[in-house]
Amino acid sequence: MTSPTPPASGFRPGHVLPDLCLLAAMPLLVHSVYRVFMATPIEQSMGTAFKIFFFHVPMGWLCMLMALIAGIAAAVQLRRRSSAAAAVALAAAELGFVTGLGVLLTGPIWGNATWGKPWTGDARQVSTALLWLVIVAYLLLRHYGPRSSDRLAAALAIFGAVNVPIIYYAVKLWKTLHPSTGVVGTLPPDMWATFWPGFGGLLLVSLGLLGLRIRQLRLADELDAAWVQLEDPQR
Amino acid sequence: MSEAAVALRGVAQRFGRKVVLRNLELELRPGTIVGLVGANGSGKTTLFSVLSGLLQPDAGERWLFGRAADEVDAQARARLAYVAHATQLYGALSARENLRLFADLRAAAGLSTRPADEVLLELGLSPEALGRPVSTFSRGMAQRVALARALAARPELLLLDEPFTALDAAGRGMLSRVLLDERSRGAAVLLSSHDFDALIQICDRIVLLEGGALVRSVEHQGDRESFRRRAAALWQDLPADPGDTMVAG
Amino acid sequence: MRILRQALLLLRSELRQELRDFELLLTAGFFTVVLLAMFYLSFASLQARAHLSALPGLMWLTVAFVGVLTLTRVFDREREADTLRALLAAPIDRLAIYLAKSAMALSVLMICCAVLVPGLWLIFPAGQAFAELPGQTALLALLGCAGYVAIGTLFAAGLATGAGKNTLLFIILYPLTTPVLMYALVTTRALLDHDPALPDHLTRMFVLDIILFAAASLLFETVLVGAPARRPERPHRPGRPRGPAEPVHRDMSRETSS
Questions:
Q1: Burial status of residue C171 (CB atoms within 10 A of its CB: 0-12, 13-18, 19 or more)
Q2: pLDDT, tens digit, 9 for 90 and up, residues C216-233
Q3: Does B167 lie in the same domain as B71?
Q4: C85-96 pLDDT, tens per residue?
Q5: B195 and B135 within one domain
Q6: What angle do CA C60, C66, C68 make, to 5 degrees?
Q7: Closest CB to A234 among B15, B56, B213
Q8: Across all residues in chain B, what is the average pLDDT?
Q9: Which pLDDT value is given to residue C174?
Q10: Which residue of A224, A229, A235 is the best one to mutate when testing the B interface, meaning the one whose CB has the most B CBs within 10 A?
Q11: Does B129 fall in a domain?
C-alpha cells in the first residue's frame, strides 16, 4: 500500500510570513495603545470617547478590505476553479466578519458617548451593517449550502465586494450625523501619529491571521486529497 | 475508422472526500449502443452530467465529435440529446407544447427539428393525448414525451439515464426498436439501465461503472448467447445494493 | 438577436404556464394585499409626518418580501420538474434563460407594484405624490424592481440547480439587495418631497441596474454550470484505430494488482 505524497519539505517564505506579520504587529499595537491613551490629547468636541476612533476606523477599513479580497479571490475561484482562491475568499470573509463585528460594536459605543444615540441609522452605519450581513450570508452559504453552492457563494462574495464602493457613495447621497469621510483628513498631525501605528498594527494582525487561516484551509484540502488517494481502489 | 462521437480520458470528479468519478476512460463510436450498468451511487448520473455539459469535471479530457470540449458549447449541445431520469417536462404545458418550445429554441439557433406530432405519434402517444397537459400523464407517457423531445433533434449522441424505468412491456419494446433505429441512423447511444434483458437485446457493448471508474466491459462479438453469458457474469459483479431493482436474465 | 429571440420564447412559455393557473400572480398579489393590511393596522394611526418618513420603507420592504416569494415560485417550477437542467443541456444561449426568468419575475413584481402603490396612496395621504407623478412613480418602481430582480434571479437559479434549500434564498437576498433598495428608498423620498433632484436619483438607479445586470449576466453560466478546467494542449485525437479487440477503457479484470 503506497502512502500519499508528503507535502514539500524545506523552508518556504510564504509559510513564515503570517507569523512575521503577527510578530511585527505586537510592538506596533503596544505603541498604538500607549499613544492612544497616554500621548494623545483629548479631542475638544467629542471628548474621551473619541479615542474609540483609533480602533473603530481601522476596523472599518479592514472590514471593507477583507470584503474586497474575498470578492477578488471569489472571482479567481470561479474563473480558474482554484481551491486556493476559494480558501483565500473564505479566510478573508471570516476576518471580515470579525472586523465588521468590531466596527458594529465600537460604533454604537462612540455614538452613544458622543451624540447620545448608539444607533443613528445613517448611511455609513447602515451600509457597514449590510456589508457585514452579506459576509455572514456568505459564510452561512459556504458552511450550510448544498454541494454546488461554492460557486454560488463566490458570486455572493463578488456582489459583496461590489457593495463596498456603494457604501462610500451612499455617504455622499444622504445627509448624515456620521462624520463625513473628511474626518480622517482633518485630524491634527499628532493624532495622525497615533492613528497610523494602530491601523498598521491591526492590518498586520489581520494579514497574519488571514495567512494562517489560508494555510489551515489548504492543509484541509491536501488532507482530503490524500485521503482520496489512500482510498483509491485502483492504486 | 470513424471518429468517436465522444471520448473521455482520465475524467475525475469529487466533492470533498466523496469521489464520484475516478480516472474514467470511455469512448463511444457512431452507430453503436453502449449499456452502462452500476449500482446506485456509482456515478452514472454524474457521468451523464459530464457528457451533456451540465457539469465541468475536476480533471481529465472530454472530446465531443472530434473536438476537445473543455466546455460543452451550444454547437456541441446541438448535436447531442440527454434524456435524464426525471422527465424534465413542464407539467402545465401539453406534450406538443413541450416539444415545440424546444423546437422553437433550436430554430432560433438555426437548427432544424422533426415535427412534434410526428415524433410523439411514432413513440406511441395517442392523438388526443398530444394536447393534454403533461401533468395528467402517467410516468410512462411522460417518459415517451421526454424521449420524443430528444429524438426530434436527430442527435448524433443520445444519452439516456434509465429510460426503461416506468415503461410497460410494449413501451420497452418500442424504446428498443427506436434505439436500434437511431443506431442504424448512425447515432452513438449511451444508456444506463437495470433491465438486463433489454440491454442484451440492443447493446453492442455493456460497461460496468464501479467506484467511479469503468472497470469491466463486455462486447457483443456476433454470438448473442455468448454475449448474454458474459454479460450475466458482469452483472453478478455488481455490488449488492438493497436499493437495486435490477433484473438478471 | 438570437439570445433575445430565445429569451422571448422562454418568457412566452413562462407566461403561457402562468396564465393557465395564475398561481404565482394570485399568491404574490394576495401577499401584497396582506402586507398592505398589516401596514394599515400598524401605522395608519400615526401622524402624517410619520407616514411620509415610513412610506418609502413600507413600499420597498413589500417589494423585498414579495420578491423573494416570486423568485422562489418562478424557480420552484423548474426545481420540481428538473426542467432548468433540460434548458441548460439544450443548444440555447444560457444567458437567454437568465433574461427570461428576470423578465418573468420583473413582470410579476410590477403587477404587484400596481396594487401596492395605489394601496399605499389610499392608506397614507402622504403618498399623494404617487398620484401626482404617475410616470416618475412607475419608473421608480421599474428601476427598483429591476435591480432587485437582477441579483435575485442569479441566486434563485443557482439554488434551483443544486439541491439548494429555499431558505438560503432568504439569507442571501435580503442583505445583498438592500443597496438597491437603499437607492430606491432615497429616490422614493425624493419623489414624495417633490425634490428637483429626482431625475438625478432615477439616473443613478438606472446606472446601478445596468451594473447589476451586467455582473449577474457575466456570472450566470459560470455559477450554474461552472467554468471549464484548464487543460494542457494535447496533439493526440481520440478515435484513431487502436486494434480490433483492444478495449477502450481500463479493464481491471485483466490487470494484476500493484
A1: buried
A2: 999 999 998 888 766 554
A3: yes
A4: 999 999 999 999
A5: no
A6: 105
A7: B213
A8: 88
A9: 87
A10: A224
A11: yes
**Do residue A224 and residue B16 have CB atoms under 8 angstroms apart?**
yes
**What average pLDDT does range C40-68 have in this prediction?**
91
Q: Tell me: do B25 and B70 sit in the same domain.
A: yes
CB neighbour list of residue C124: distance below 8 Å, 6 or more residues apart: C43, C44, C51, C54, C55, C58
In chain B, the number of structural domains is 2
ipTM of the complex, rounded to two decimals: 0.87
Residues of A within 8 A of C229 (CB-CB) are: 81
Chains that touch C (3 or more CB pairs under 8 A): A, B
DSSP characters over B162-224: STTTT--HHHHHHHHHHHHHHHHHT-EEEEE-SBHHHHHHH-SEEEEEETTEEEEEEE--S-H
Whether A72 and chain C come into contact, CB under 8 Å, resolves to: no
Domain contains A6:
no
pLDDT single digits (tens) A152-187: 999 999 988 887 777 667 656 655 444 554 454 566
- Neighbours of A, requiring at least 3 CB pairs below 8 Å, are B, C
Q: Do B56 and C234 touch (CB under 8 A)?
A: no
Residue C60 backbone dihedrals phi, psi, to 5 degrees: -85, -20
For the four alpha carbons of B144, B149, B152 and B155, in that order, the dihedral sign comes to: negative
**Pairwise CB contact (< 8 Å): A130 & C252:** no
Task: Residue window 100-139, chain A: list those with CB within 8 Å of chain C.
Answer: 123, 126-127, 130, 133-134, 136-137
pLDDT tens-place string over residues C121-143? 999 988 999 999 999 999 999 99
Which of A97, A130, A158, A229 would best serve as a mutation to test chain C binding (most C beta carbons within 10 A)? A130
Q: Report, in angstroms and rounded to the nearest whole number, the Rg of chain C calculated over CA atoms.
A: 24
Q: Is residue A117 part of a domain?
A: yes
What is the per-residue pLDDT across B76-127, written as a single tens digit (0 to 9) for each? 999 999 999 999 999 999 999 999 999 999 999 999 999 999 999 999 899 9
Is residue A183 included in any domain, yes or no?
yes
Position B54 pLDDT exceeds 50: yes
pLDDT 10s digits, B138-166 = 999 999 999 999 999 999 999 999 999 88
Q: Which of B136-146 are b and which e, b meaning 16 or more Cβ less than 10 Å from the residue's Cβ?
A: ebeeebbbbbb
A235 close to B (CB below 8 A): no
Range of the domain at B175: 1-79+156-201+219-249
Chain A's closest residue to C208, CA to CA, is: A166
pLDDT band at C255 (very low <50, low <70, confident <90, very high): very low
Please judge whether B17 and A234 are an interchain contact, meaning their C-beta atoms are less than 8 angstroms apart.
no
Number of domains comprising chain A: 1
| Residue A93 within a domain | yes
Domain ranges of chain C: 2-227
